[in-house]
Amino acid sequence: MTRTLVLVRHGQSEWNMKNLFTGWRDVELSAQGEAEAKAAGARLAERGFKFDIAFTSALKRAQNTCQHILDATGQSDLKTVRNQALNERDYGDLNGLNKDDARAKWGEEQVHVWRRSYDTPPPGGESLKDTGARVWPYYMHEMQPHVLRGGTVLVAAHGNSLRALIMALEGISGEDIVKLELATGVPMIYRLNADSTVASKEILSA
At which residues is there a site annotated Transition state stabilizer (predicted)? Predict the structure, then answer.
């Protein structure tokens, strides 16, 4: 009865590399991102991880990261559930813009508020609080039951959907969660107690 949840932010995408707001735009992993995803899988394989089910978003940068990890653990055909509830935060009018260009248009302070406040969305987009409103019920109803039955569950998703999930798991405040930086392609291993609280957390860095 392992009750293990492994969270991985997708490897670097082509738009991460270009400093663009990506959001729900469906862009590929960069060459570095492919390498990060494969390295994450190798580290998990070295530790003997075998998953019972995998969850990922509706976006291919997370899906491809998930597949690289499953390939590395010898589970290429594992059941994988894809759902937009795990998508990155929607940046609305900022999607596709260079972050420096956005600062030039709206001002550095305003763009910082949109990026790093908990409940202020950019025009036409979602706040982190909005992102959590779709992530939390999906976790509770679809993912957590597998973990609490003693399973080992892989989740390959995005910086903000994972922030929302970590916020719930660790009881982090909205003010503090926006400060949490998540590296691309680095597995975070949570062991849960039977009551769903976190027993331990390990970051599997290179």
Answer: 158
Among residues 36, 88, 126, 158, which one is catalytic? 88
pTM of full prediction above 0.70: yes
Active site residue 181: no
Q: What is the pLDDT of residue 190?
A: 98
Region 89-99 average pLDDT: 95
Task: Select which of 10, 68, 146, 158 is catalytic.
Answer: 10
Clarify whether 88 is annotated catalytic.
yes
Q: Are 165 and 155 in contact (CB under 8 A)?
A: yes
Distance CA 187, CA 24 (A): 22
How large a percentage of the chain has pLDDT more than 90?
96
Give domain 4-91+128-203's CATH number out of 3.40.630.10, 6.20.20.10, 3.40.50.970, 3.40.50.1240. Answer: 3.40.50.1240
Cα distance between residue 196 and residue 190, in whole Å? 11
pLDDT of residue 1: 61
3-class DSSP state of 21: coil
